[in-house]
Amino acid sequence: MKPCVALALAACLWAACGAAASPAPSQKPLRVLVVTGGHDFEREAFTAMWNSLDGVEWTEARHPDAHKLLTPEAGKAYDVVALYDMWAPITPEARTAFAELIRKGKGLVALHHCLAGYPDWPEFDKMIGGRYFQSVPAGAGPDVKASTYVDAVPYRVHVADRKHPIVRGMEDFDITDEVYGSFRVEPDSKPLLTATEPRSGPVIGWTRTYGKARTCYLMLGHDHVAYTDANYRKLVVQALFWAARR
């Protein structure tokens, strides 16, 4: 399956894209809207990862057109949203529609660099549960610093909540990936994954609720090293099914 750029009516989205993998006969594929744009990534390896996820049927929506599909009406065509974008421009109308889509219960899985998205929209921080500061915000207190990133860091990921469905069947694991430092995690976010690597923030994955929706953030996922990692793929697919209440 080749991912399609969703530019038409939401009702036509899934006709253009086939399933990434066959689900169990008794269960329909999970329909995922994957949002990209505003940050480069290794497209071929990224596509291969999404095509490998069992029981997942996915469609890509690229900015600047993605907001057309982040509305309550368009949301009827998919089960869960996965953010892999780092976008900034958003109209007041698009803000209202996007927030309403998630608040009404559409699950959301936020991945890697989307933590730096929409820097002028505080409601987005509440939606995904944190914020990467590309610069120190005006009026910020002395404890707020610009966030940092370091690529290709080998480190150990610790499972903080072993009872959570997103990490079912998983143990602590090693990975080499880009890490972020000095980012904010909303205090009511529930830690899911942690790290002791000094160049990384201590909490690197969390869950929360936003209105009626389940949302999850995973810091991991910079390039092909993560995309091909079995632990990362398991985290992503289990997060998607959890957020979609499946």
CATH topology title:
Rossmann fold
Low-confidence stretches: 1-23
Structural class: alpha/beta
Mean pLDDT: 91
Can you describe what's shown?
The chain has 246 residues and is of the alpha/beta class. The chain has a single domain (10-21, 28-243), classed as Rossmann fold (3-Layer(aba) Sandwich). 19% of the residues lie in helices and 28% in strands. The chain has helices at residues 43-52, 92-103, 122-128, 224-227, 230-243, and strands at residues 30-37, 56-62, 80-85, 107-111, 130-131, 148-159, 173-181, 184-185, 190-194, 203-210, 213-218. The strands form two sheets. The chain has a nine-stranded mixed β-sheet with strand order 2-1-3-4-11-10-9-6-7. It has a two-stranded antiparallel sheet with strand order 5-8. α2 (92-103) links the parallel β3 (80-85) and β4. The two termini are 23 Å apart. The model is unreliable at 1-23 (pLDDT under 50).
